[in-house]
Amino acid sequence: MTAVYQIPANSYGAIEGPFPLALIYVTGGTRGFVDRVDRATIEVYAPGQQALNTLESISASIVGEAIDTPSGYVDGIAADITPADVPYQSDTLNKAVATFLVTSRPL
Predict the structure, then answer these.
(1) DSSP 8-state assignment for residue 31
(2) Fewer CB within 10 Å, N or C, the chain?
(3) Strand pairing partners for 36?
(4) Is 29 exposed, middle or buried (0-12, 13-18, 19+ CB in 10 A)?
(5) Which of helix, strand or coil describes residue 1?
(6) Residue 67 CB: number of other CB atoms within 10 A?
(7) What angle do CA 8, 96, 77 make, to 5 degrees?
(8) In order of start, what are the domains of the chain with their CATH numbers?
(9) Is residue 35 very low, low, confident or very high in pLDDT (cuts 50, 70, 90)?
């Protein structure tokens, strides 16, 4: 699986692999007195049922509390919108989407 912040496309504008391809973006959130909660969305593009299966696997591996990462400490990641297949106009690819709430505290 390849994780990207911008979808790679060929000269015709079609998505290029390798697949599965996970697009990750943050759509904003809320800031509290001590912490902040950001909404992170992951879209997975892959052939057939592989899109949803890959996103379910990603969800199972990132959801949790007290997560120590190379970039810092994350208080928790929770599913806001569970992984689901969504309509996508392609003969060869399917699209699955999920949104997560990422809670962190600035250092």
Answers:
(1) E
(2) C
(3) 31, 104
(4) middle
(5) coil
(6) 16
(7) 95
(8) 2-104 (3.30.2000.10)
(9) confident
